[in-house]
Automatic annotation (TrEMBL):
Comment on bound cofactor: Binds 1 Mg(2+) ion per subunit.
Record-stated family: Belongs to the HAM1 NTPase family.
Catalytic residues, chain numbering: D192
Full protein name: dITP/XTP pyrophosphatase
Length: 325
């Protein structure tokens, strides 16, 4: 490796740097913590790519962290072919490359979040692919604790309806999530959930929302289900489970899929005022209580949707960090 000497000098700053095989980096007391920390971050970035940082720096006069770091980045870009930049925003220093944020150094006093991000809403938005406010309320309760702003399709009245033409829960969830994500450019979560009754061969299944016909109300679907089970008297023969498939889609990215089930039985008559859909008929496990008799917190602690969300949260960070396909 050829040794190259670089120098920067003005009225307040004077640095000399040597790039070469025998050069080494050592701490320098004159430079404040923000410059030192960003230099450490640069070292780790280059080490990950096995490029190294053979740089020896002499600080003769020091006045500006931004000027000092810009000098170093100019050297790195020339020697390695990188395109690193340093930006200043609201007192913070941002290390960026190719439109990607690599590192942020904040002042000790912090920064105003809204001013820093340049947006009124600073939370990530998750669009739930449903117009059902009951379902949305459950997701909002679950994801609100994780710092997400939850929207649903009622916030986007001009979006077309996505026909659920799939023959499986996953097919329908994918159709909704991926179509709406492409139309809006947003991260979209869609679920296809349904009740599967064993004695009915898994029905109503993917047709749960329209068991009594297209546009059927919850009451009409419940009445239809009770009619189908009219001759099944023993509660043990009325076993069933709620199933959920969740799909999270983001533009130009492979979708994330998780599934979960919630076992129980179908009651002989509806009970409870909470929930929606088949909740008044679904007896939770061996508790003797219907889902509609649970509070939203009790339901969110054990439901098929809550279990699926828990699985989602376990794999979501790794999925989100993956590069777009």
């Amino acid at each position: 490796m050829t040794k190259n000497i670089y120098e920067y000098k003005d009225g307040s700053d004077w640095y000399v740097a040597e790039w070469g095989q025998s050069a080494s980096y050592s701490e320098f007391e004159q430079v404040p913590v923000e410059a030192s920390e960003i230099l450490d971050r640069l070292e780790s970035i280059l080490a990950e790519e096995e490029l190294g940082l053979p740089l020896n720096i002499t600080v003769i006069r020091y006045g500006s962290a931004f000027r000092f770091l810009t000098f170093l980045l100019d050297i790195l870009n020339q020697e390695t072919g990188r395109k690193l930049e340093l930006l200043q925003r609201q007192g913070a220093l941002l290390l960026v490359e190719g439109g990607k944020l690599l590192y942020v150094h904040l002042p000790q006093t912090g920064v105003d979040l809204q001013a820093f991000l340049g947006a009124k809403d600073v939370k990530d938005t998750l669009l739930i692919a449903t117009r059902n406010e009951g379902k949305t309320a459950e997701f909002r309760k679950l994801f609100g604790k994780l710092g997400y702003e939850v929207e649903n399709l009622n916030d986007y009245p001009d979006l077309p309806e996505v026909a659920e033409t799939g023959m499986t829960f996953e097919e329908n969830a994918r159709l909704k999530a991926e179509t709406i994500s492409k139309l809006t450019g947003k991260m979209v979560l869609a679920d296809d959930s349904g009740l599967q009754v064993d004695v009915l061969g898994g029905l109503p299944g993917v047709w749960s929302a329209r068991f009594a016909g297209v546009g059927a109300t919850d009451d009409e679907n419940n009445i239809k289900l009770l009619h189908e089970l009219a001759m099944v008297f023993d509660i043990k023969d009325r076993s069933a489970h709620f199933h959920t498939t969740l799909v999270v889609a983001s533009p130009d990215k492979e979708s994330l899929v998780v599934e979960a089930d919630w076992p129980g039985y179908i009651a002989h008559e509806p009970k409870g005022e909470n929930g929606f859909g088949y909740d008044p008929l679904f007896l939770v496990g061996e508790t003797g209580k219907t889902s509609a008799e649970l509070t939203i917190d009790e339901k969110n602690a054990q439901s098929h949707r809550a279990q699926a969300v828990q699985k989602l949260l376990e794999v979501f960070p790794a999925w989100q960090s993956k590069q777009s396909s």
